[in-house]
């Protein structure tokens, strides 16, 4: 019997690791490090690629980001600077790597099996946003903030950001909870070509 208290563990505060994947389940991800920042980008490029009003990003330290099945392919701009990665089958835009900024990966947080807790802390390119588009981000920038603005934003995010456990109600749907508890999502990871259950319930959207 030990009398020592368990030391505070940042990973358990964030309920890591997280699993996630694309719409079809062929590419599966494992996240084992707390995010640095969450962002929404309203730029017209993100509007086009997301087929929506803005893209969402969760900056994950590269050391805590792993593709555990499937082979994402480069899509989007195919440029020198930003490398946009997609599922080769369902073409979901999954994550972005930026040349020269190798220490993090910008994950699209809607890839996570549980992502209802994610909210943008920072929003960028509001100069290009759709007139009706609004987010709950605390920090808004007309374009991309200068690089030297990021350390303070990352520090504030670590202090204030809602993690999975800090949400008031853990509103995981009963269906998804059952899937997670049954291990079906684990099965899907090892049989990714023909998922028995999809972690993304099929719906019309
Ligand atoms: Zn896919
Ligand atoms: Zn953008």
Provide a quick synopsis of the model.
The protein is of the alpha+beta class. It has helices spanning 10-13, 44-50, 150-160, 174-182, 184-190, and strands at residues 18-21, 28-31, 37-41, 55-61, 65-69, 73-75, 82-86, 93-98, 104-107, 122-124, 139-140. Mean pLDDT is 83; it is low at 1-7, 167-171 and 184-202.
Give the arrangement of secondary structure elements.
Blueprint: H1 10-13, E1 18-21, E2 28-31, E3 37-41, H2 44-50, E4 55-61, E5 65-69, E6 73-75, E7 82-86, E8 93-98, E9 104-107, E10 122-124, E11 139-140, H3 150-160, H4 174-182, H5 184-190
Parallel strand pairs: 3-10, 10-11
Antiparallel strand pairs: 1-2, 2-5, 3-4, 4-9, 6-7, 7-8, 8-9
Bound molecules: zinc ion (2 copies).
The rough form would be described as globular
Oligomeric state, counting identical vs distinct chains: single chain
Unreliable stretches, pLDDT < 50, 5 or more residues? 1-7, 167-171, 184-202
Molecules bound to protein: zinc ion
Number of helical regions: 5
Percentage of residues in strands: 15-25%
Please state the average pLDDT score.
83
The CATH class, by name, is: Alpha Beta
Largest sheet: 8 strands, mixed
Strand order of the largest sheet: 6-7-8-9-4-3-10-11
CATH topology type: glutathione-dependent formaldehyde- activating enzyme (gfa)
